[in-house]
Design a protein that fits this description.
The complex is a heterodimer of chains A (about 160) and B (about 110). With about 160 residues, chain A is of the alpha/beta class. Chain A has five helices and five strands. The chains are: A alpha/beta (about 160), B mainly alpha (about 110).
Chain lengths: ~160, ~110
């Protein structure tokens, strides 16, 4: 199984990108039953728990950093294992209380040995993340592009799963 | 002697916690049993508060109060740990400092909201 998790805050303009992209996928009748869609929103703890189910791969949908607003990016997640951090940083991570940031949630999953071997991020560089409802035209225009890139990625991950990679 | 965790509300709580056992164990290992469990509870309470933008003011206040109680109890646990009674992190432990900073940030946020 592959987990696709949408992160973001609907009240912060383009930060809603991951959740909006997930909604598009929910409407896709051709989606494989081996893909589970999960609306993490801003609730990282439930995402960490969901990973206890054991997945072969996880794809995070979110707003991502970058130079050009509206640019779609597909990244392999580089997740730090908190067990390798010096004590102070490790404690800060535990105390930060903010697993709604996918990197932290994945780091926690890694510490628990529940992070799937393949972890990707599909996202859009935001144009606006101030308080407000509704995404910018740049992010809206990026939705179909991101959906196409995500579909490609899922096809390749499903194929890898079939051949037992 | 019958354990209070095997009957009634204790047993119900233990059963519910089973689904998050790996998280509980991780926090316990890192911060000690009491403080670790309380830190984890603050994470869930924060999720509950932030995931529901349409909470009634009363429900929001109840969650914030629960969060404040947990943070305040956790600080007491960590205070005890600093004096060598409970944190259990060993050498290099800065749980108390980290939590104090985060607790202060949390209190500042709560103050700005009110």
């Amino acid at each position: 199984m592959i987990l696709v998790a949408g992160f973001g805050n609907l009240l912060h303009r383009d930060d809603a990108f991951g959740v909006r992209l997930l909604e598009r996928l929910q409407d896709n009748p051709n989606l494989s039953p081996r893909v589970r869609l999960f609306d993490a929103g801003i609730g990282g703890m439930h995402f960490v728990q969901e990973l206890f189910c054991g997945y072969r791969a996880v794809v995070i949908l979110d707003a991502v950093q970058g130079q050009t607003p509206g640019q779609v990016r597909v990244l392999q997640a580089d997740v730090t294992d908190p067990r390798t951090l010096p004590p102070r940083l490790k404690r800060d991570m535990l105390a930060d209380l903010h697993y709604a940031e996918p990197g932290r949630a994945m780091a926690m999953a890694k510490a628990l040995d529940t992070l799937p071997p393949r972890a990707y991020i599909v996202g859009c560089v935001p144009a606006a993340i101030d308080l407000g409802i509704g995404m910018s035209p740049e992010a809206e225009n990026a939705l179909p592009i991101a959906e196409a890139r995500l579909t490609e990625l899922l096809t390749s991950l499903l194929r890898a799963e079939e051949v037992g990679e | 002697m019958i354990s209070v965790l095997e009957h009634g509300v204790g047993a119900i709580a233990e059963e519910k916690i089973k689904t998050i056992a790996p998280l509980v164990e991780y926090y316990e290992t890192e911060m000690g049993l009491g403080a670790g469990r309380l830190m984890l509870a603050t994470n869930f309470l924060r999720d509950a508060r932030e995931m529901q933008p349409n909470l009634t003011p009363e429900a929001r206040a109840a969650l914030e109060q629960a969060e404040a109680l947990v943070v305040s109890t956790m600080i007491r646990f960590l205070g005890a740990g600093k004096e060598g009674e409970g944190c259990g992190c060993g050498e290099g432990c800065n749980c108390a400092d980290s939590i104090q900073q985060q607790a202060q940030a949390w209190l500042d946020k709560a103050k700005n909201r009110s």
